[in-house]
């Protein structure tokens, strides 16, 4: 068996080269996916800062789900890359192990940073949801205050007085031009009920969104803690 001066037989050297190429391809793909996730995070951060009552909720919810799935998937990819690196480095007698470990640590650190940023964005969203809920409750309370419009009974009295004045001045009675205050009051009540139904639906959707965000924050906290531990572990191995 022919052995090169570096201690590797030709077949083993070729296998090591192939594994190195495979490792670099995996790391490059993870890096590309991380960059795409960072771009989504920038858009998500912009949406999270909006404090209007009716913001781009659908975009916010969609991006939150996508980024969360990205982070979970990237975490699994990095763990798989780390396992691949360990198996590969096991037969290399520490040759090149420092480079692969640095690559893994770099990816873990970047993902940990993205996870932390995402967690902060979700916390901002939670605060905005609480603020919007408080505003909605104030508006809802204001809607139940007495209005300046007369009730249906007083509306009938007003209509009667108007008709009496018309009769005194010789104005013919015409139902098409009569001010029906009772109908106006009924219309106002119907509008209030419609707005209340819409407000209740919106509040329920916001409540569900808040629960989802809080659950995501908890999961991200676990991922971040895991990544921080792995980064620390890899750092100690390198040094």
From TrEMBL:
The keyword Membrane applies. It is found in: Membrane. Its main location: membrane. Residues 200-239 form the T-SNARE coiled-coil homology domain. One of its GO terms (biological process) is vesicle docking. It comes from the Eukaryota. Residues 129-175 are annotated as: Disordered. InterPro entries: SNARE, Syntaxin, T_SNARE_dom. The keyword Transmembrane applies. One of its GO terms (cellular component) is Golgi membrane. It is a single-pass type IV membrane protein. Keywords: Coiled coil, Membrane, Transmembrane, Transmembrane helix, Transport. Residues 145-160 have a biased composition (Low complexity). One of its GO terms (molecular function) is SNAP receptor activity. Transmembrane segments: none annotated. PANTHER family: SYNTAXIN, SYNTAXIN-5. Belongs to the syntaxin family. This is t-SNARE coiled-coil homology domain-containing protein. The lineage of its organism: Eukaryota, Metazoa, Ecdysozoa, Nematoda, Chromadorea.
């Amino acid at each position: 068996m022919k052995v090169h001066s570096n201690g590797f037989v030709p077949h083993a050297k070729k296998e090591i080269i192939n594994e190195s190429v495979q490792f670099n391809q995996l790391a490059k793909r993870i890096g590309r996916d991380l960059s795409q996730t960072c771009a989504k995070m920038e858009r998500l951060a912009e949406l999270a800062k909006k404090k209007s009552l009716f913001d781009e909720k659908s975009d916010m919810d969609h991006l939150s789900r996508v980024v969360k799935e990205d982070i979970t998937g990237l975490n699994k990819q990095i763990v798989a890359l780390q396992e691949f690196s360990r198996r590969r480095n096991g037969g290399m007698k520490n040759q090149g192990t420092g480079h692969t470990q640095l690559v893994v640590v770099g990816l873990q650190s970047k993902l940990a940073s993205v996870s932390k940023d995402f967690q902060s964005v979700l916390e901002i969203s939670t605060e905005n949801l609480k603020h919007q809920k408080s505003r909605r409750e104030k508006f809802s309370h204001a809607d139940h205050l007495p209005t300046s419009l007369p009730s249906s009974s007083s509306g009938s009295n007003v209509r009667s007085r108007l008709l009496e004045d018309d009769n005194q001045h010789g104005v013919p009675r015409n139902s098409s031009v009569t001010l029906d205050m009772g109908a106006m009051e009924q219309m106002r009540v119907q509008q209030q009920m419609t707005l209340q139904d819409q407000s209740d639906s919106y509040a329920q959707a916001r409540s569900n969104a808040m629960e989802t965000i809080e659950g995501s924050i908890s999961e991200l906290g676990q991922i971040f803690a895991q990544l921080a531990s792995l980064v620390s572990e890899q750092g100690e191995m390198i040094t």
